[in-house]
Write a structure and sequence with these properties.
There is one protein chain. Strands 1-9-8 form a 3-stranded antiparallel sheet, with no helix packed on it. The protein has a 3-stranded antiparallel sheet with strand order 2-3-4, with no helix packed on it. The termini are far apart. It is α+β, with helices and mostly antiparallel strands. Helix content is 20%, strand content 21%.
C-alpha cells in the first residue's frame, strides 16, 4: 500500500508569501537575463548612425585649405577655394572628360562649373571613381612632379589619375566619372549638413 503523502501545501500565510516571492524572483531573473540577449540583437548606436547625416562646422577652414570628415564610413572633403581657384575652373573644359557633369555623380543643384552650391566651397566624397583609392589634395599650380600644365586639383597616387578642384576627372585616365558630390545643405554660412538636403533625402 502506498503510504506516500502528497506535497504539503503551505500551512500559514507567511510560508505562502515566501513561496510566491521565490517564484516572482525566479521569473524576474529569467526576464532580466533575456533583456541583454534581446538588446544584443539590436543594432548598435554606431550602426544606427552610420547612414545618418553629419553636421560640420567649417568656420576655421581658411581659403585654399581642405578638411575631411567621415560620413557613412567614407571621407568627405570640404575645400575652401580661393577666388583664383574658382576662376581657373571655368577654363579647363577642354582637359576634362565630363566638364558639364552630365553623368549623375552629383545632385542637380551642383551641376555647374564649380559642382557646388557656393562657388568657394566644394563638398565631395574623397574616393577615386576608378578603384576606390583616396586621392591627394594638390592645390599647388604647376609643381615639378605633376607638370607645368597642372592647374591644381586632386591626384590619385594609385594610378596617376587627376581631378580638378571641382572633382571633375581629366581625359585620358582610367577613371570613368567625376568624384561623387553627396547631398548636402547649408545650415548657416559655415555649417553644413552632409547626407541630407531640402528634399529630406
Amino acid at each position: 500500500m502506498d503510504t506516500q503523502q502528497p506535497w504539503p501545501k503551505p500551512s500559514n500565510p507567511t510560508r505562502r508569501k515566501l513561496v510566491l516571492a521565490a517564484s516572482a524572483a525566479g521569473s524576474a531573473a529569467a526576464v532580466g537575463s533575456a533583456i541583454p540577449f534581446v538588446a544584443s540583437m539590436a543594432p548598435s548606436e554606431r550602426a544606427r548612425s552610420a547612414g545618418a547625416p553629419v553636421e560640420v562646422d567649417f568656420s576655421r577652414l581658411a581659403p585654399g585649405n581642405l578638411m575631411t570628415v567621415e560620413w557613412r564610413g567614407m571621407p568627405v572633403w570640404i575645400l575652401h577655394r580661393t577666388p583664383a581657384m574658382v576662376e581657373r575652373l571655368e577654363k579647363l573644359d577642354a582637359l576634362l572628360l565630363d566638364p558639364a557633369s552630365k553623368k549623375p555623380q552629383q545632385p542637380e543643384y551642383t551641376r555647374n562649373p564649380w559642382r557646388s552650391r557656393k562657388p568657394e566651397f566644394l563638398v565631395a566624397v574623397g574616393i577615386c571613381t576608378h578603384l576606390g583609392c583616396v586621392p591627394s589634395y594638390r592645390g599647388d599650380v604647376a609643381p615639378a612632379d605633376l607638370g607645368a600644365d597642372w592647374p591644381g586639383g586632386f591626384h590619385c597616387p594609385c594610378h596617376g589619375l587627376k581631378f580638378d578642384l571641382a572633382g571633375r576627372v581629366f581625359k585620358r585616365v582610367p577613371a570613368p566619372s567625376n568624384l561623387v558630390v553627396p547631398r548636402h545643405k547649408y545650415l548657416a554660412d559655415t555649417r553644413l549638413l552632409i547626407g541630407e538636403d531640402e528634399s529630406g533625402a
